[in-house]
Amino acid sequence: MNQRFAIAAGGITVVFLVTIAIALQLMPGPLKSTDYLVVGAIATFVSMLVLFVILTQTVGTKKQIFTKEKPSKDED
């Protein structure tokens, strides 16, 4: 697995978990099942937004995350 991909996946996971923790603290209790649904939806939205920003910032640069580097063409 590509190291940059692993770092991006780990970062997105951390963002997801932190967003869940913050949203659960902000929700007034007692929590119902629909409250957990809302918290999960918010965390998913924030995580996908962060992923979108990462991908748009790396497109067209050598720091692309989700593409393999093309080998250079060596002429013998």
Report on this model:
The longest helix is centred in the middle third of the chain and has 26 residues, at 33-58. Helices cover 66% and strands 0% of the residues. With 76 residues, it is mostly helical.
Mean pLDDT: 82
Low-confidence stretches: none
Global morphology = rod-shaped
Q: How many strands?
A: 0
Could you write a compact summary of the structure shown?
With 76 residues, the chain is an all-alpha fold. The protein contains 2 helices and no strands.
SSE arrangement:
Elements: H1 3-26, H2 33-58
Fill in the keyword field for this structure:
76 residues, mainly alpha, 2 helices, rod-shaped
